[in-house]
Specification:
386 residues, alpha/beta, Quinone Oxidoreductase, Chain A, domain 1, 2 domains, seven-stranded mixed β-sheet, 14 helices, 28% helix, globular
Length: 386
């Protein structure tokens, strides 16, 4: 017997142009279009971008629509699928790529959908995953391998950011500087070490992060408030400077210091998002250095996802050191405060199951998801346990 999906759910929403998020009950469950997949979220990661939105900085105020459900890192079970969905099964454990491309612009058609001209990002341009349900196109769904635990699968998105940054910069056999060892910077330390970087240097303002970076494979760690650290970084690399800069902080001073340390002819891959426009000495720090600068946005779809899956399954990802806290969704404020204080590295929220159903439950048309069509008991029986 089929069990209908609930009409409403719990979600964290940005209901006003001010710091904070609001825990809201009675939010309408997303509708499912013909090519859509409705996912019952079980775990969701708090990202640095989510912190920007929570704190409502200048970037967020200019970018985020008030009223949106936030969050974009998650894992869950497929609860319903549209009539035109062909590969995704109800009951399947999945994550999803959060950048939804148009599919027809030049970047999308040339293998660069991560920089689609008309991209929508879940939790930023459309409702996200800090909720009991999220809806995404089938093309964006990523089946999760049975070997990967839920709390790790929930953070494939930021792990993909780190992987994309490291792989784009071609770190193998090179000296690498990582400015900012927050969540993604720490991930990048581990990835760069296993990708063959010969020497890894890091800078940050938090001694605890610097200590952990060393544990993950960094050879040198500099306190960013020491104005002389760029020169020390050059000395540590034979007076030449590191050949690769991975900029993860988005901090204006860190960006400038990183370029000062970078070797002539070096490559800089920039992922960190500044909260406001950055003033920069373009001539001295890029042009006269002959530096190659790469803007890194999201993940390569879907090359990066395969790389992340292989990396995690290899046993090289230090999940126990990166994912420091798992909290109930209701405790989201505590999660953000732990991130702000630096007491947490990565926080994963456990999302409660909907009360009116033990998902998975149904296949849907483009009508509201509350219209039950079939039971998913048989479909879910072949799915591996989490």
């Amino acid at each position: 017997m089929s069990t209908p999906l609930p009409r409403t759910m719990t979600a964290l929403k940005k209901i006003s142009a001010a710091p904070g998020l609001t825990h809201v009950e009675g939010v309408e469950v997303p509708k499912v279009g013909p090519r859509d997949v409705l996912i019952a979220v079980t775990h969701a990661g708090i990202c640095g971008t989510d912190r920007h939105i929570y704190e409502w900085d200048a970037w967020s105020a200019a970018r985020i629509p008030v009223g949106i459900t936030t969050g974009h890192e998650f894992v869950g079970r497929v609860a319903a699928v549209g009539d035109a969905v062909t590969r995704t099964r109800v009951g399947e454990r999945v994550s999803a790529e959060g950048h939804i491309g148009c599919g027809v612009c030049r970047p999308c058609r040339t293998g660069n959908a991560h920089i689609c001209d008309k991209v929508d990002i879940i939790g930023i341009d459309r409702d996200g995953c800090f909720a009991q349900f999220v809806s995404v196109p089938e093309e964006n769904v990523w089946p999760v391998h049975a070997d990967i635990p839920d709390h790790v699968a929930a953070i494939f998105d930021p792990l993909g950011n780190a992987m994309h940054t490291v792989m784009a910069a071609n770190v193998s056999g090179k000296t690498v500087l990582i400015t900012g060892v927050g969540i993604i910077g720490l991930m990048a330390v581990s990835i760069a070490r296993h990708a063959g970087a010969t020497r890894i240097l890091v800078s940050d303002i938090d001694p605890r992060r610097l200590k952990l970076a060393r544990e993950l494979g960094a050879d040198e760690a500099y306190v960013a408030t020491d104005e002389s650290w760029p020169e020390k970084a050059r000395e540590a690399t034979g007076g030449l400077g590191p050949q690769v800069l991975l900029e993860m902080s988005g901090n204006a001073r860190a960006i400038s210091q990183g370029f000062k340390a970078l070797a002539n002819g070096g490559t800089a891959a920039l992922l960190g998002i500044p909260a406001r426009p950055v003033s920069f000495n373009l001539a001295d720090e890029i042009i006269f250095k002959g530096a190659t600068v790469l803007g890194i946005n999201g993940r390569r779809m879907y090359e990066t996802w395969y790389q992340v899956e292989d990396y995690v399954r290899s046993g090289r990802f230090p999940a126990d050191k990166i994912i420091t806290h798992q909290l109930p969704l209701d405790d989201f404020n505590e999660g953000f405060k732990l991130m702000q204080s630096g007491d947490a590295i990565k926080v994963v929220l456990r999302v409660p199951a909907p009360e009116k159903t033990s998902c998975p439950v149904q296949r849907s048309t483009s009508a509201p998801v509350s219209s039950s069509i079939r039971s998913a008991t048989a479909a879910s029986s072949s799915v591996s346990a989490t």
